[in-house]
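Bug report (template v2)

What were you trying to do?
Predict the complex of my protein with adenine.

What happened?
Run completed; filing so the output is reviewed.

Input:
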Amino acid sequence: MKKTESVTCDVKSPALGPTLGKGKVEWAESQMPVLRAIRARFEKERPLKGARIAACLHVTSETANLCRTLKAGGAEVFLCASNPLSTQDEVAAALATEYGVPTWAIKGEDKDTYYAHLKTVLAQNPNLTLDDGADLVSILHSEFPKQLPNVYAGMEETTTGVVRLRAMAQEGALKYPVIAVNDAATKHLFDNRYGTGQSTCDGIIRATNLLFAGINVVCAGYGWCGRGFAARARGLGARVIVTEVDPIRALEAAMDGFSVMPMAEAAKLGDVFCTVTGDTSVLRAEHFASMKDGAVLANSGHFNVEIDLPALAKQAKEVRRNVRPLVDQYAMADGRSLYVLAEGRLVNLACADGHPASVMDMSFATQALCAEYAVKHKGKMAAKVHDVPRDVENWIATLKLETMGVRIDTLTDDQKKYLSSWNEGT
Ligand code: ADE
């Protein structure tokens, strides 16, 4: 562990904080007007005073602004990464040296270091947990059970985390309330769709410099992230094929004008594949066997399980690391090569900067207001998965519209009356 001037932490290079990190954090701040408004209020009202917050999030310039907001509200914030490859080292440094947020995160950290960092954050005895993927909740329950009574609530940022938490709640294993920030409309409708859509294309293109125009891009999964990625890949001129297991989503993809087919067929056609399903082994041995020479494989789902890399390594004759940064070549016995980006981890964060700040503005505004709600309702929320309060969502959407210069109509009294009556028909 290195000790910088202000806080104990483990970051790659504290010197990057003032030189590169601070400017990047301030640039993101300029794109986050809703979070800025919350920070200004928090500075006056200090609604989180005394709360200890453990955060396991992607360590990006947007996350730095969330941490600054929580601190402005009076909380102590302790941060680690929610993925070994997503950390922006200059931002981690700035958090430690410029913003007084103890941070344990290094891009490329191995699995042991990743978990050691997470446990260091949990050892700070938090009252709130902020997760992106439910690792804090899971390890707090299994390895720090004595601390559970000190936790007021948790917040969960992503779809995969909410799925894990609902499974915990179903088994009666969840011992404190968690708010499903991901499920808020102000989060998934924008961040998952526009954020993942754009940043996934950005990650694949930055890593490979491929031209999307005229190639076949296979999008596995048509949830909010898949919808976003498919739309943006099409916008860049690719022919997009969607694979799905859910008949309603598959129907939507077909009516949105995409080719829909099983992966066994898509595998033979794709030039670029991207998994966004949240499930395991979506691309597997039978698919690798029929892919074209030169096919590029990426994942933008939370965990690195969507591409069965152990199976691919077994099938390959040789694996050459880093033919370009974060691009690995798998040379197959029959002479074909397949290329895997970012070791199958989140391509949008590992190979690019993640979602743009203007969309994280809403997601992290939701996080900050849910933290305030959780402190206000300490001891009054049941140990289950909670929805984001509706007024929080409406406030965020209203302010975001205002900052975008978009005005909308309001219902007249007549219209309100009409909507609450049932006896006016044809
Ligand atoms: N998840 C996706 N993009 C992100 C970003 N820019 N910051 C934090 N978490 C993210």
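What did the reviewer find?
The radius of gyration is 22 Å. Residues 1-7 have pLDDT under 50 and may be disordered.
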